[in-house]
Amino acid sequence: MKYLKLFFLILIPLISLADDGSRLWLKYDLIKNKNVQSAYAKYNSIIIPSKKTPTIEKALEELQIGFKGLLGKNLTNNSKNNTTGGIKLEITNKEELTKDSPEDSFAIIVQKDNLTITSKTETGVLYGVFELLRNIQTEKIITKNIVSSPKVKLRMLNHWDNANGTVERGYAGSSIWKWNELPFRIDPRYITYARANASLGINATSINNVNASSRFLTAEYLEKIKAVADVLRPYGIKVFISVNFRSPRTLGGLKTSDPLDTDVRKWWIEKTKEIHQYIPDFGGYLVKANSEGEPGPQDYGRTHADGANMLAEAMKPYNGIVIWRAFVYNADPNGDRFKEGYEQFKPLDGKFDPKVIVQVKNGPIDFMPREPFHPMFGSFPKTKLGIEFQITQEYLGQSTHLTYLAPMFRECLDTDTYANGKGSTVSKVIDGSLYNSQMSLMAGVANTGSDANWCGHPFNQANWYAFGRLAWNHELSSEDIAKEWIGMTLTNNNNAKEKINAIMQKSLPTYIKYTYPLGLHHMMGEGHHYGPEPWLTKAARPDWTSIYYHRADSIGLGFDRTGKVSNAIKLYSKEIIDTWGNPDKCDLNYLLWFHHIPWSKKLNTGNSLWEELCYRYYSGVEETKNLQKEWNEMKPYIDKETYASVMARLKIQEKEAIWWRDSCVLYFKEFSKMPIPNNLILPNRTLEEVKKLVEIYHLR
Amino acid sequence: MKYLKLFFLILIPLISLADDGSRLWLKYDLIKNKNVQSAYAKYNSIIIPSKKTPTIEKALEELQIGFKGLLGKNLTNNSKNNTTGGIKLEITNKEELTKDSPEDSFAIIVQKDNLTITSKTETGVLYGVFELLRNIQTEKIITKNIVSSPKVKLRMLNHWDNANGTVERGYAGSSIWKWNELPFRIDPRYITYARANASLGINATSINNVNASSRFLTAEYLEKIKAVADVLRPYGIKVFISVNFRSPRTLGGLKTSDPLDTDVRKWWIEKTKEIHQYIPDFGGYLVKANSEGEPGPQDYGRTHADGANMLAEAMKPYNGIVIWRAFVYNADPNGDRFKEGYEQFKPLDGKFDPKVIVQVKNGPIDFMPREPFHPMFGSFPKTKLGIEFQITQEYLGQSTHLTYLAPMFRECLDTDTYANGKGSTVSKVIDGSLYNSQMSLMAGVANTGSDANWCGHPFNQANWYAFGRLAWNHELSSEDIAKEWIGMTLTNNNNAKEKINAIMQKSLPTYIKYTYPLGLHHMMGEGHHYGPEPWLTKAARPDWTSIYYHRADSIGLGFDRTGKVSNAIKLYSKEIIDTWGNPDKCDLNYLLWFHHIPWSKKLNTGNSLWEELCYRYYSGVEETKNLQKEWNEMKPYIDKETYASVMARLKIQEKEAIWWRDSCVLYFKEFSKMPIPNNLILPNRTLEEVKKLVEIYHLR
């Protein structure tokens, strides 16, 4: 794009000097560290491969704007191979990248006079360029070779963006995709989006909501999607489309969408062919079927495998794949939603076409702040399973709470399923190493929107960042990722970096304390999922209420999943049953996920359940106050607008933490009939008053 | 705000150099004209009144950032009255502002060594500052005194922004109001919004959709609204709330919302008192009642006057007012929606409390691209009538067509109602001069959203601008307003300014040609109102179809409102009946509004109706091609991103113009049974094909 090359300064009016966050972590502001500056000062040119492909061109552009911004240096473009003081972009088989290293692996090789960024693929070279820039931006001097390989093959964002411009569970304005402007207008933000993703190694995106409109499969919209795909392609990003299973009827005029019907199969074959005429490297389909009212193969008495395999058949001539979601559950007041996905899919293990990946949410319910890992992981040896995380913070504070999610992603990935003995972590299921699978997928539900800063809360950008980095390498620590992001986005002051990292690391445990302590889950405001509503008793479905999950009664609290009400614990390995299945051994963070615990039962903290519950809610609130104090100390290091935005949101967070605390403590007190511990200050409102507050958010 | 004062330059990365439109017309980039620069070079300081109120502080700030940006000059703040080379801000009664000049009138007085900006009010002084800056920004040297007075007292934006962040009929992202962040976080955009409005003299804003949620009247939300009001207050902008008439039941727990019920009246009195505790200068209520399913006094057998007067009673102790919308119509397949507002309100003329203004849309149907003025104007001598224009382009190309609306606003305002004899224009009804009213209102439905450039199409900003300027002074010409806006927003090159003005002036006639020529109306896509759907036959209500309005049959086209089907024409004065009511004298632009014209009838253009219809649709499309050529010539003068955005949208406009043309010509051809004139190229698709295209936009 030409404006990337505007190498002159214009007068920016004074009013817009504050940082609106629109550049994400790719800020490229001049770095202050003189040592780092001089370490990179010797590089004056870029040596590119003889074949200047679009992706190499992007790598070149990025290096140029990066060096110009970070170091104030203009890198010249040099095609002579014998230059010194150059950054060499190279597509070749270096020994650093063994023959069987994963696609898009790259190496940065430090030579005497040059720095070589090398990969078997041009996308790998682009990734190497971003790695180099990230090192400079975080003020690191590269002194030895860097070799980096992705652990997971498909690193993907799932957009829940609707055709009408809204975003389901979006908290940062409207959709970034301007469908009415496409294909003619390419919003410059599409390019920022592509750069941001490529900088993390994200290589796939499904552009529309899984509650999918058929219109995305019409020629009218394929032309629009093609325009987006053309922008993303040079950045190594493949486009997927979420499809509505009923499309053969809706669009094709067929009488059925039965996946075993010949005409239906033919329709999908033709449609898939048509898509490839627009997008030759089409990523594939993402399907939510027979879930929450969406159509699917079960409407015709067929299985999920029948549906997925039909689409896989249509995809056969191409490289694309079919991603089929396992997020299904029937409305059964006597059942346990926890088990639904497992039970519906278990008989199908081994029946899916090799082109199908089944995409499983990290936990068995629905992106709760702390869920045990989904029991499907480790139990489906003959099915390729991808994992779906939620980056957008539907249940995690939306745009007003600071919650850094890398610890949650890691907790899930690091948990041992014991499927093939000790060490069979979820990450090994996902990256294909446990069952030696060649296809692997980590998907994250995007948190992008039209807001200037893309993600609402300035810290929400860190969750996009962390997801991408973990999808590339799930062995990166949550701390290292946070510090990278802080350095790129907020400040490179080491002291501040440590302190902000500390804020981020404790943010999720704090959030969980004042919302869902001890393994409580699914008690949010009905529909909009904003704020608490533990008293929600009636909803369109029993499993959309709160009481279905917390099961508070005069005896105690929690969902007994160890046999009496549900035997969900049996879906896990013996080792897990022995711990989580035993109320005395169960990690307190998962306690009420699996057990109905008497109010007065002493926990290993020395407190009764009731006391522990109260203490957690109260200490969660106290911690939100500390977050404000700690953030206040960061003021000297942070851009003013960003500082103010975060500080204001921390104040909202405190207010809403009190709202959660008061709601839950006052509500559960009706069951426990026990007093709030003496050393805690009683809520200054009644249960009826907090209920009234929640009602406000249900008014149209 | 502190960041206004960041008087240093920081390095902005190269990628963000393009203009994203976020500064609206207040760009304050350094002006190039040396003569203008030197003319203002003598001013070095600002002399402010002894009492430095918040509004004076804003005036001071604005002058400082304006001079810094436009002229590169730092103005010092000087409180000594005997300084020379100063810009003096003064609150006093100058002879230039006679005692009975309207509130907020101001004068800029050119003295030998100083420039004095004077007004009876501090808001007037702020307006004067914006007038001065506008002159500098458009490269005008002020050589003689400027005196300026508002013609209309209440110059107001109506936001149709919902509590959930969406905007009804919004085409620029989501709501600018971040309810979940308020009251704690003040988005910096609120300040830009306030400055932009104050720069035009807009002094009121209703912040929520007229399809109103009761939640805006809860303490929880009043606290949020107060935070917004506190930001807007120093800029002279009063906040109004759209209210849900059922609130006494919804919020107050009463059994009724009957406006004659004592408890209901008491509830509103208490609620109004409560609001004033948050917002002492509360503007008042805006009410959509018994309209399109909204609750209202008729639910209890009461009249609109009963409802409005009840609210006026509650407002009695305060300065606020009640704005009651006249946009009401019952679903009667045999009636004529054209007459509904008039007929429902006519018996109430004289029955409204003095605190009530009845807000009437510019035309009798609903913001169609070209509507005859609403017959209520001029027919309600005992009722204060305000006018409601739609700035957001629901029926005018949304975010993809270039349509400059000042000519439409002017056409309505300039039309003679003949109510008190010749010269009784709509503008004289509105500004209060015809009936000597002290209260007057011009409201515009806002087109703001979360998009970086606020309004979607870069040229949509001009409609916000034009509305505000006309609300201040409806005698300003559409051309002068356009040139001001171009100079502030796009370029001060005189040649380019003329050419862009020409594009703007013809944009609306062009749009009308390919959508609603000859007085056609209401044929847009159902629900979303995007694209054409003239064949819409069934809808939730008969008056939401297209056939209700165009009445195409084998004989001809158009709605006979001269007696046989409806006698709507009789609502106008005799002079109008004599012209619009006579198919041979009627302005062709209104022809099918009032007459069912035979297909073969010769019009005064020499063409038959059918031919004329075809020619207009076709020439409309041709003109969209010319717009692209003309815009292309402007490339050297325009910021690259803005240029590209407009050019891409012009291409969309052409595509959609063809869509409209093909839909309407092919559809009406089924009735006229006449061939498309020989010299026109036939559409390259069938009616069935365009119908299919429209169906796509109805898919979820």
What's the SSE blueprint?
Two copies of one chain form a homodimer.
Chain A: H1 34-40, E1 45-47, H2 54-71, E2 76-78, E3 86-91, E4 106-110, E5 115-119, H3 122-137, E6 146-148, E7 154-158, H4 188-200, E8 204-206, H5 219-232, E9 238-243, H6 247-250, H7 262-278, E10 284-287, H8 304-315, E11 321-325, H9 337-345, E12 356-361, E13 385-390, H10 406-414, H11 426-430, E14 441-445, H12 460-472, H13 478-489, H14 494-515, H15 547-550, E15 556-557, H16 574-580, H17 591-594, E16 597-598, H18 609-633, H19 640-672, H20 687-696
Parallel strand pairs in A: 1-2, 1-3, 3-5, 7-8, 7-14, 8-9, 9-10, 10-11, 11-12, 12-13, 13-14
Antiparallel strand pairs in A: 4-5, 4-6, 15-16
Keywords (chains A, B): Carbohydrate metabolism, Glycosidase, Hydrolase, Polysaccharide degradation, Xylan degradation
Subunit structure (chains A, B): Homodimer.
Domain Alpha glucuronidase N-terminal (chains A, B): 24-132
State the gist of this model.
The structure is a homodimer of 700-residue chains. With 700 residues, chain A is an alpha/beta fold.
Key traits:
Alpha-d-glucuronidase, C-terminal Domain, 3 domains, homodimer, 16 strands, 700 residues, TIM Barrel, xylan degradation (chains A, B), polysaccharide degradation (chains A, B), hydrolase activity (chains A, B), alpha/beta
Structure write-up:
Chain A has three domains: 2-148, Chitobiase/beta-hexosaminidase domain 2-like (Chitobiase, domain 2); 154-489, Glycosidases (TIM Barrel, Alpha-Beta Barrel), CATH 3.20.20; 513-559 and 596-696, Alpha-d-glucuronidase, C-terminal Domain (Alpha-Beta Complex). In chain A, the strands form three sheets. The first copy, chain A, has an eight-stranded parallel beta barrel with strand order 7-8-9-10-11-12-13-14. The first copy, chain A, has a six-stranded mixed sheet with strand order 2-1-3-5-4-6, with helices on one face. A two-stranded antiparallel ribbon of chain A has the order 15-16. The longest helix of chain A is centred in the C-terminal third of the chain and has 33 residues, at 640-672. The model of chain A is unreliable at 1-16 (pLDDT under 50). Chain A is globular, with a radius of gyration of 26 Å. The first copy, chain A, is of the alpha/beta class. Chain A is built from 20 helices and 16 strands. Chains A, B: InterPro entries: A-glucoronidase_C_sf, GH, Glyco_hydro_67_aGlcAse, Glyco_hydro_67_aGlcAse_N, Glyco_hydro_67_C, Glyco_hydro_67_cat, Hex-like_dom2. Chains A, B: GO terms for molecular function: hydrolase activity. Chains A, B: Its EC number is 3.2.1.131.
